[in-house]
Hints:
The complex is a heterotetramer, with two copies of chain A and two copies of chain C.
Chain A: H1 11-21, H2 26-29, H3 52-63, E1 73-74, H4 87-94, H5 96-99, H6 110-127, E2 131-132, H7 139-154, E3 158-161, H8 167-177, E4 182-185, E5 205-210, H9 221-230, E6 234-239, E7 257-261, E8 277-281, H10 285-288, E9 296-300, E10 307-311, H11 318-321, H12 334-372, E11 387-391, H13 395-404, E12 407-408, E13 411-414, E14 417-421, H14 428-442
Parallel strand pairs in A: 1-12, 3-4, 3-5, 5-6, 6-7
Antiparallel strand pairs in A: 2-8, 7-8, 9-10, 11-14, 13-14
Helix pairs in contact in A: 4-12, 6-12, 7-8, 12-14, 13-14
Chain C: H1 46-58, H2 81-88, H3 90-93, H4 105-122, E1 126-128, H5 134-151, E2 160-164, H6 169-177, E3 181-185, H7 195-201, E4 206-212, H8 224-233, E5 237-242, E6 261-265, E7 282-286, E8 298-301, E9 306-309, H9 326-363, E10 380-383, H10 385-391, H11 395-403, E11 421-424, H12 432-451, H13 453-457, H14 483-490
Parallel strand pairs in C: 2-3, 2-4, 4-5, 5-6
Antiparallel strand pairs in C: 1-7, 6-7, 8-9, 10-11
Helix pairs in contact in C: 2-9, 4-9, 5-6, 9-12, 11-12
Amino acid sequence: MTHPYIPNAEPGVRAEMLAAVGAASVEDLYADIPEGLRLRRPLDLPAPLASEQELVAHMRALLARNVDTTQVLSFLGHGCYPHHVPAVCDEVNGRSEFLTAYAGEPYEDHGRFQAIFEYVSMMAELLEMDVVNVPTYDGHQAAGTAIRMAARYTGRSRALVSGAVSADRMSKLRDFLGHDIDLVVAPVGPDGEIGEVEIDETYAAIYLETPNVYGVVETRGRELADLAHAAGALLVVSADPISLGVLAPPASYGADIACGDIQSLGMHQNYGGGQAGYIATRDEERLVAEFPSRLFGIAPTTVPGEYGFGDVFYDRTSFALREEGKEWVGTAAALWGITAGVYLALMGPQGMREIGETILARTRYAMDRLAEAGATVPHSGSVHFREFTIEVPSCDALLAVLREHGILGGVRLDDRTLLVCVTELHSKDDIDRLAAAVREGLA
Amino acid sequence: MTHPYIPNAEPGVRAEMLAAVGAASVEDLYADIPEGLRLRRPLDLPAPLASEQELVAHMRALLARNVDTTQVLSFLGHGCYPHHVPAVCDEVNGRSEFLTAYAGEPYEDHGRFQAIFEYVSMMAELLEMDVVNVPTYDGHQAAGTAIRMAARYTGRSRALVSGAVSADRMSKLRDFLGHDIDLVVAPVGPDGEIGEVEIDETYAAIYLETPNVYGVVETRGRELADLAHAAGALLVVSADPISLGVLAPPASYGADIACGDIQSLGMHQNYGGGQAGYIATRDEERLVAEFPSRLFGIAPTTVPGEYGFGDVFYDRTSFALREEGKEWVGTAAALWGITAGVYLALMGPQGMREIGETILARTRYAMDRLAEAGATVPHSGSVHFREFTIEVPSCDALLAVLREHGILGGVRLDDRTLLVCVTELHSKDDIDRLAAAVREGLA
Amino acid sequence: WDEPIIFEQSRPGRRGVAVPAAGVPAVELPASVRRAEPPRLPEMSQLHVLRHYVRLSQENLGVDQAIAVGQGTCTMKYSPKVNDRFVNDPRIAELHPLQPEDTVQGVLEIYWRLERMLAEISGMHRVSLQPASGSAAIYANVAMIRAYHASRGEAEQRDQVITTMFSHPSNAACAKAAGYEVITLLPDENGYPDIEALRAAAGPRTAALLITNPEDTGIFNPRIEEFVRIVHEAGGLACYDQANANGLLGVTRAADAGFDLCHFNLHKTFSTPHACGGPAAGASCVSEALAPFLPSPTVEFDGEGYRLDDDRPLSVGKMRPFLGVTPNVVRAYAWIMALGADGLREVAETAVLNNNYLMRKVLDIPGAGAHWDRNRLEQVRYSWQGLFEETGVHSEEIGVRAADFGVHYWTSHHPFLVPEPFTLEPTESYSKEDLDEYATILAHVADEARRDPEFVKGAPYNQTIHKIDPASLDDPKQWSPTWRAYTRKHLT
Amino acid sequence: WDEPIIFEQSRPGRRGVAVPAAGVPAVELPASVRRAEPPRLPEMSQLHVLRHYVRLSQENLGVDQAIAVGQGTCTMKYSPKVNDRFVNDPRIAELHPLQPEDTVQGVLEIYWRLERMLAEISGMHRVSLQPASGSAAIYANVAMIRAYHASRGEAEQRDQVITTMFSHPSNAACAKAAGYEVITLLPDENGYPDIEALRAAAGPRTAALLITNPEDTGIFNPRIEEFVRIVHEAGGLACYDQANANGLLGVTRAADAGFDLCHFNLHKTFSTPHACGGPAAGASCVSEALAPFLPSPTVEFDGEGYRLDDDRPLSVGKMRPFLGVTPNVVRAYAWIMALGADGLREVAETAVLNNNYLMRKVLDIPGAGAHWDRNRLEQVRYSWQGLFEETGVHSEEIGVRAADFGVHYWTSHHPFLVPEPFTLEPTESYSKEDLDEYATILAHVADEARRDPEFVKGAPYNQTIHKIDPASLDDPKQWSPTWRAYTRKHLT
């Protein structure tokens, strides 16, 4: 049988083509591979499910062994967030013209260039910054690159990193930066914000997150910007864009580089596969020069009034310069950028404000209800967005009780600290249900 | 809030437009509707779920109250069949260019015309007939229209209808034809085929189904064609196209009109919403004139070698002639026609043969296993395709036992007769599982 | 794309999808039923089948691509994407219609709730969602009318149905298919159906009046109550074609004007997608007196659960297989739920405002007109008669040329009582900017027609194909309704 | 479509989707964190957002639309539609990555089974599916190389990485980003990487050799085992860039040539879609000696269930958040399951045959050439140098003009060691007829270039837009990487 995925495996056409290239068999074409390297047995793989129907049955059985967050009530966040994904986002990123395209030129792929240009442009409005990159892999990578950009920009090799970041992100930063940038971790204050810090002229950057790993909204951004700038360093702020309809964008309090993950803007949780990173700066040539990512710009065509697009300052990149480029560029997460653009266009300024207000209010409501239910809620005087911690005698014991109620109660940060995530998807009833179960679990 | 579905509900634009039409309010535009007819209260409808998120939650809760056939093992058929739907079928009919288009002209909707022309052309190959209609609603309607076509063609008003058709179809035929066509029901033979029949010169048609309601493949098609033709009547045969990779097409044994339902060719079961009907004839002007449906034909354009499409013999239709047209034409099931075309193109001649062979073999296997399990299997000497009946002491009692095993065992035709459907989706293991449960249920 | 006919892309031995082998002993077929020759279907790999259809799809224009105001009477509105998600869920897509009722409570509840909502919107007592389309709903209504009269012993006597010329042709055609003699009322000099003609026609032979209002012209008949009364007094029933109810939601209801039956098209007013011409869905709504005749089964609710009732001796029986076109029932339900009473009213008002706004723009184009200077609700049947007289360019040619600019219209139904017609229905889905753009394109093409009629007659210039020569389509010797026929007649 | 920038379609007050109100008391934000001005995002109804993006999508060409053999090194193969269905299932799409292990056994099994299959395909011991892309996998491999040398106390000493000029630029770039000095080997006169240069470079400072084979030229380096040996003898590790393994599946394996590490791109060889440039997915495959350094967590199977292991003291840690790009892991798994061992081998053989067939056709075009008269496996880097010398038309211009015919190519990576390059990689997905059509178009354009070079230089003529003036893109005063910047610089 000719496999449906391989048209020229059909014996007749194969013979024709072999004749055309003057080969007796495909073996001839492999002549350069020494015999010693040849695998002279079939690969040891499971028997194929050649019919689509059998493949579907097999996959369906595997998927049936997952329980997803539409089947239980989940309060899990910690870097991957449950938000409503408008159907139009899925419709657009499912269009095969976008899904199966890659790296065509600005003509036959005009649509891709425009869609991504619009994404970066909408992010720019949200961030109040003029330069935003074509997405990188995720918020971890964006943070690492942003700090590295600051180091290159300042010519320095030390950075102050907020202690209120996740262990995973810290692991990534250590791996990505640790070999040539000295990372100094700032303390966390009793209010859950970054604590008192000092820097000197050896520092390239202060790196801050808001809301931070505890869901606390940092309020001293302006102060930290002044501190950084006084030392000739940059302020790098990682902010979730879904908060920026209500929270001040980093640029407004002096941040030089903003970064973060855009998974909240229209990507499903995807078992962690929906992440994508953004990096933004002001339009300053020296800073722009430090982006490793592609930047798409608008450009005129030979027809007056017509727009085309192209790469801005391509000769920064590793595509152009190999190891002399800035870090590297390659396939990252463009489709998620397009999707985030669709999301922002659907939401508009009103939607972004409202979703921010709803999340703020429900987060606070959940904090209050869980405190009433007997949990200790640290940092309760601070502003929280979407996440907060509770302290309980035993996370494991509490989570087990919640499981019995069909609730995934949160992410266990340590034995006694649970991180609870509340978004617009969690109705008042859902939160009340959690509170009741927590009360039972703590009783 | 301006509703996302109604752009001009935004108050500013609404005011602008009212000004442009010179109306003080929309009420002015309703001036022709007498006050006595005006509804001066809001409609009494459920509160809206204006946010998409709330709508999704509501619908998800409703859907959760269904148990679908991927969650249980279903042997239900009887007019709506579980077959594998290749993903490409869904991909194509989900393309919004097809899904949201309607009745454009052959230029801007060239794609629709070509796709439907190709569907009818592939059906024509399967049926060995030259004329196939743009789909009508379903197999019931196709059967009714086919008999009516025969009546108009012959100028007679009596038809012999096989008794081996479903009660539902008979109900439809009686409603649709009964007021002016005399329907004589033929007996069913002990082998499950149509029994001995006679007709005279008052008959317009013999109507036969194969496989029939019992899953029995009729073997005397040629004989019935000769009988019909000898009396100046037509032979109308309803055949499921999914069987025609292995079974002889009606035209090959002399049928004048073929008809049936194409749901098997790439449509999901859709709780009965995936039906669509086909009607086919030879290319004889008088017969073509009796089609009520649209027929799409290929036509040259001003550019040599270029194909366009258009309506064949449009002046038969009710669009053109109102009540003087043949029955009526309107929106029916075009997208399912396109989908069936995709299905046939994916399957090709090999695939159609193989699926037929697989279904034949598994049907027979199931008959044998259920007989072994203690069920009486009538018509077991006949060829069955996809369906067969078993006789048991009590259908209800047996079905209840099967339900406990997560099996929907079949469609209850009467207290003691159960119709079992087996397709390529039912593996040998599935059939063995059914047989074991039946054995238990009959023990 | 210059995409060949699919048969031209076939190469023996290739395939698009594989089928599992039986895995059990094969069955030998007797020669009398065995297929002799394999069907000459195309043989292509999966990507190539997909690519072919994706390219064809790109040569098609739906609501999601273009400003589709040109298919008047069709209510080309936005069909929300989220509603498709519900339909594609296996808990709809993979339900068998004969499953036990306890396994389909969710879908039965949707049917029930949509029925109740449509009953409220129409003012009627019960609703059947079984009809497969608007025309099928008209047919179902006619079938119920016949059953009603039969139940009173008047089936033979009442053998006439009255309709109007600007009611959708399916009213006349379905009545005829059901065996009725059809009497068609022409418009009077005001553009309304002629009430005197109705009085003359109504009588003991009258089974029913089948009438659209507003008619395809967009004009609301203010004497509609009187029409109903005249027919009722003659012993007939009044049946309202509400295929185009988009301007009336929450404004006026069929029951309030005294109608006994009406129908809706879910794929028009209630936003289910048109799908290149179906699957559609119709709703037949009836008064309490007609309810016993509704198609079977009905969905019933006992306060706890939903069940199907098939034991209805007066029922007209089955209109189609199973309960209805479920995907569209689900979509229509979700659409109403997303809007609610205020939203539906806003739909109607906006549809009417959009139509009146566009009318102003269109009537400003020299050569465009609309018969009868009346208010219009949700659509207008316009005429290019003025332009035709000046330029010799037909409405159809204007429409084809407009398609070069990414919009289009169709020329409506025969007979062309309005000469050189085109019917625009902007619905609530389009923005003011869309309407401005549409009118600008029409004005541009009209201007082209005036300056260079032959150029417009030669259109299209910017489409997949060029001007079609339709001569062969009506010639039995040449017509080719399938590739098989074409091959035989033209390629051999 | 002449589709405006989305900001130009905004009208205040409109919206595309509604957000539920909080339903609980609002929170007052302190001024220090409250946003002062609403963001200037577009305001549009839902249909209009959708239509905008649908139109943009139609201005884009993917594998499902066009003959995408022109993106050599990218392995633009068919990504089966059915695999997308699995990914869109809520039981993948709606899984949170930190759910308890017992609720994600299905997805963990997929990770585990795909790891085992890739281990067999590469001959390696363990595999990490965490890297977000091919480049990220290279980086992960470099990180493991560093960790390995560090574990042996040689981190400081081994500060050089060797690569080749026709290895993908990310090998050089990732090594540099990880702090290594990069030594790049140029091809010798036969088109192979210069083995003498390698001998000269390898030594106590060598951390690793990062090498692609076949290189981007499509030429397989038959001395690859010797390359590995030289590096091993110098104490370095050998790391195989198998981003383009499509011609080698089941033919030869990284481990068999002695490599310590390799990586695959799931979005190339294993068919996950390219998605306009990601999300992609990489797989880092390592020998037993390197396994302790793999990113965390790993998926482990105890014979009964699957669990995540995060307690791995030598691990390089997190390469990205969570376990990996799950949708692509699922697709790659399904793709391999649909093919099996024989199918993968058939993929490889067909990809190589297709490439050689196309090469014959392309080299028949006057003006087209390929450096080094060597066998090629799955792709060829060609050159239009001959045509350029004759006509002055650049390769890029040929590619743009080819796009007018619905196909295209890209001009590959800098530096253009092959002058006027273009790289074609037909994969196994395209038919002979596709390859013929592609070659015919190239021949046609080359002929055009010969007859009328200025015409070709003026292309495109049949695209959404016309020839772009790129001058502003490299000028800081003019460049406009966002609409915000454009508005400020050019519209005010």
